[in-house]
């Protein structure tokens, strides 16, 4: 019925706890999950008095760092100083425990994001209350010396007593020592609400929160973000170089929002100035309005409306001097970005304007004479927010240094014609030097570039900001002008690579074809960037990923490039080992990768020579046991152990005639599973019950029994750390129990890794002995930090697919593999802790047993679970995979594609000489 009150939007009701979640932290009882963010997980808890509280538990990978804990301690103290007007009060914190956490007041009510998503834009009165409450909260937060850094609609709760800002206790203490690491990980907030200086990796102050206030006010008023949506790199580009769309913001708030969304942090009002203006209805201080205010000519449009309302975020839009000349102010260039990415020059005859290589020294631009330029024609950037305002294809990159109040913003060098397609580059023109002073009446001609670079410009323009105007040329020793550039910082570079954009990587001047060599550091940088682009392209364009992977590895064999090679080419290296298909029961590889072994259900052991160009079957012998042998393991000496009804040690002095030299006779249970320490001196055996037994193998011909232990549940798999000090025992109860083997005659059970829903089917150690990877019947692969055996911490998890995980193995410290019951064999990157960037290593009809050898450069597989099939060998050696890759000409990157990505290194066929 018209005029009826809509039902209330549900608040922040907790979700049930996961199995791995804590049940109690300090004096607080945990009862549910409220959410999860970039810093950690938020739980609902209750104090001893029964009061509800919100407890944010920090992610383990952050808590591991002493410098983070120190900063967390400092910021928690700062957060307690924040006055409680419109914030969730910080009540308690524990920065020193195994689970660092922050306790705040529990605020009942939906988030602004949820409210607008379900109801649409706020009503005018509610909008003004929200704007005032958030500005008041920011004023209090800033007064305590804190920058929120991630103010979004999800961090504004609409409580019954009014809006409240949350999640500010984990912000940067900007009054502190400046220890905060200005890396992309910390600079990046939520993309649609980030300030330009966060993207540029420039110093972040309270002005970034003011920018976010403007953005969330637009969202609350209109239901959309001020810079639109779409691909991350396009969104960040618009934040940096395009005006915000504030159409739909009420006239009373529009001037404040417009000022808050200025690109230059020095020209934004403070939160306190916003609060005072909202409370009193008065305008902002004259200095704020004058910072980038319109000229008299622009102040009134043809329809008589306020020009500032129509310009919407005008600082780097269309401001100009009365005489039409632009004011230019220099700014320091962020050092973090100087060696990462230089914006690509525009094509000849088409904007954006050309741009030179970065200057050899970084600093403020020298004063130059302004140059008049024609008014540019507007264009619309792909994915830009709809609105009645004209869109610039990109103003010059913003200066993040304070701007003189006498300067008005420059015009955007927007194109009049679209950039050419890479397949049809424009003809080359004669290079023309850029004048320094005096300036010509007409705009300077762009410098010509080689055809390969011109062809790449249209592609790289998506990520490269437009050029500075020619009047910003600085004199050099030769008297020629060198244009300064503002580089997109590390955060944008990484995000651009993450979405698969080709990057124009330039460094130094170089020649038209690039230098024949670069420094090792630069080569590694180029290689890593190409490898990341390959990882991103792989799911949708595996052919391109293959070319980029091979090129990256040829430039420099970095860890990222090696991983990319494995992801792109390992599956194609698979070869089946000779021998009739059988039901295998286990596989093994020697540490040098020269020999492979497999046991089968018929009671036999097979050995293969893998050192030859073509693998050869060396032996196929019967063990003589009534029970089928299982779980072969190679000793460091090259000898072999097998399990089964009775375990055996085999000498392989002659691999064609293996000979049993001793028995591993169990005291309690059949040794169906074997685990060996890295030095080969400790053997642990387990069967399908709850018994583990330990053996001294200093002399494999005479294994010495050390003792046994009873585990809490039925064992499904075991793994021994490379250093032989920790045993991981997987069980049907969904846990992995950890045993301290410091005293090998008296193992001590410590903590348990709890998280899988259902049985843990597989466990393996990563190099270093401090991390394990597990697989489970719940179809997940999980990574754990077990540095503290009493309190193992899950680092991350991924879902393998639609089937239970059968086996897991670690290739090296950065790559793990897993097999599920459907036959899917996947690789996972764990370089960033959480398993990610999965890639296929092949698919069979059933799950696979796995063995890693050759220092992580070989993977041996065989059907698991009694299924008959062939054993197969997969190379994970990037050097060998390069040979595999070069056998197919399609994997070679061409010169045109090379030049579109790399400008400072001359093209080199990655398969030359092969």
TrEMBL record:
Annotated Protein kinase domain residues: 28-279
Residue ranges with Basic residues bias: 308-319
Low complexity compositional bias, start-end: 335-350, 380-394, 448-465
Record keywords: ATP-binding, Kinase, Nucleotide-binding, Repeat, Serine/threonine-protein kinase, Transferase, WD repeat
UniProt feature, compositional bias: Pro residues: 367-379, 410-447
Residues that bind ATP: 56
WD repeats: 674-699, 708-749, 753-794
Domain of life: Bacteria
InterPro entries: Kinase-like_dom_sf, NEK_Ser/Thr_kinase, Prot_kinase_dom, Protein_kinase_ATP_BS, Quinoprotein_ADH-like_sf, Tyr_kinase_AS, WD40/YVTN_repeat-like_dom_sf, WD40_PAC1
Pfam families in the cross-refs: Pkinase (PF00069), WD40 (PF00400)
Enzyme nomenclature, EC number: 2.7.11.1
Residues annotated as signal peptide: none
Region (Disordered): 1-20, 288-479
Gene Ontology molecular function, alphabetical: ATP binding; protein serine/threonine kinase activity
Family as reported in the entry's similarity comment: Belongs to the protein kinase superfamily. NEK Ser/Thr protein kinase family. NIMA subfamily.
UniProt-recorded name of the protein: non-specific serine/threonine protein kinase
Species whose genome carries this gene: Pseudofrankia inefficax (strain DSM 45817 / CECT 9037 / DDB 130130 / EuI1c)
